[in-house]
Design goal:
Strand content: 5-15%
Mean pLDDT: 82
Radius of gyration: 29 Å
Oligomer: single chain
Helix content: 40-55%
Shape: elongated
Length: about 350
């Protein structure tokens, strides 16, 4: 078959490949989400006519209709190296894999070399989908999936064809420098993976820790999340337990909250009962903890530099809660400081 006939045949299939790209990208996002896999992005692209023609000429394919497997390409970028095996397992369970043309560049490089690392699969949607009408024309088309971490992606973008400065063959001394920096990225990649694993273990240890030991823990964002989970469960509170950042931790410490038992001290039964008696719409961890501090000692709370903590108002619901202890004049604490009093559905700032 002549090159022109091959190009014409591929061009006739471009619409199918575009549909394949869309379907595969959508399917991967759906399956990754269902399996609770964190990822930065899943992005698909379909080669253009020009790009297809250039590659056929550059590669001198003897049978391009069979050999050209990347007209549709999907790239999955995950945060951590430890996420890659799970993603690869999902890909193997979802698609038919062309093992001969798939490659794990990490294994190819081995343990004693550094450079571009990524997992490449050549796949088809597979026979399991050929009977579905939406896949009838595309189930046997080949496509490629790349799986890499954020740092592997950074290296690939810098060192390969899309970055002209690093493309082609470099002089030995520059190639060595480039590979050394690649090794640094690889070390950082593994380092973040290790830290993330230790954070997960720390969080798990907190969840099973005995009450006595947990109550003596110093507060941090993870400890606060675990504390709120227990408090919500114990008291059947309707609160969105969002992860707090360093601002909230600092705000609590300014108020004198340093240990978990200090949190229980301000979130005491009197406050919980008053909270349950009020009708709150939406509230999250930030609003709940700020209400608990003000309910415990509003004079003390406003002696602190609250303006540095990033919030500028409260809600009518919170005012009614505070009024059960301080009376209707509690509004003056906010009016004197020119703070906004918002309706519950307006209060989305944390």
């Amino acid at each position: 078959m002549s090159i022109k006939k091959v190009q014409d045949a591929l061009n006739d299939k471009l619409v199918d490949f575009e549909r394949l790209t869309f379907s595969t990208e959508w399917l991967l996002k759906k399956i990754l989400s269902e399996n609770e896999v964190e990822y930065l992005s899943v992005a698909g692209r379909t080669k253009s006519n020009t790009s297809i023609s250039e590659k056929i000429k550059r590669k001198s394919y003897s049978n391009p209709l069979v050999q050209m497997t990347d007209i549709t390409g999907i790239r999955i970028i995950v945060y951590l190296e430890s996420h890659i095996p799970k993603v690869c397992q999902i890909i193997r369970e979802t698609f038919d894999i062309d093992e001969k043309n798939s490659i794990d560049r990490d294994r190819v490089l081995g343990s004693d070399r550094i450079g571009y690392r990524s997992v490449h699969f050549v796949c088809s949607l597979g026979g399991r989908r050929k009977d579905l009408p939406e896949y009838a024309r595309i189930h046997d088309l080949k496509f490629e999936i790349q799986v890499r971490t954020v740092f592997q992606h950074a290296w690939a973008e810098l060192a390969h064809e899309r970055a002209y400065k690093f493309s082609g063959k470099l002089p030995p001394h520059l190639e060595r420098q480039l590979n050394l920096y690649s090794g640094m990225l690889e070390s950082v990649d593994k380092g973040f993976d290790t830290v993330a694993s230790e954070v997960d273990q720390y969080s798990y240890d907190l969840s099973i820790e005995s009450t006595d030991r947990f109550d003596d823990r110093s507060i941090d964002s993870i400890v606060i999340s675990k504390f709120m989970s227990r408090l919500i469960e114990e008291n059947e509170l309707e609160i969105d337990n969002v992860d707090v950042d360093s601002r909230m931790v600092e705000e609590l410490k300014l108020f004198g909250i340093n240990k978990v038992h200090d949190l229980y001290h301000i979130c005491n039964q009197m406050f919980i009962d008053a909270y349950l008696d009020r009708s709150f719409g939406y509230q999250n961890t930030y609003g709940f903890l700020r209400d608990s501090m003000m309910y415990y000692d509003i004079e003390k709370y406003f002696q602190k530099p609250w303006a540095l903590t990033g919030w500028s108002g409260t809600t009518e619901e919170s005012l009614r809660l505070l009024a059960t202890k301080y009376g209707p004049d509690v509004r003056e604490f906010f009016d004197d400081r020119e703070m906004d009093i918002l309706e519950e559905d307006e209060y989305m700032v944390i």
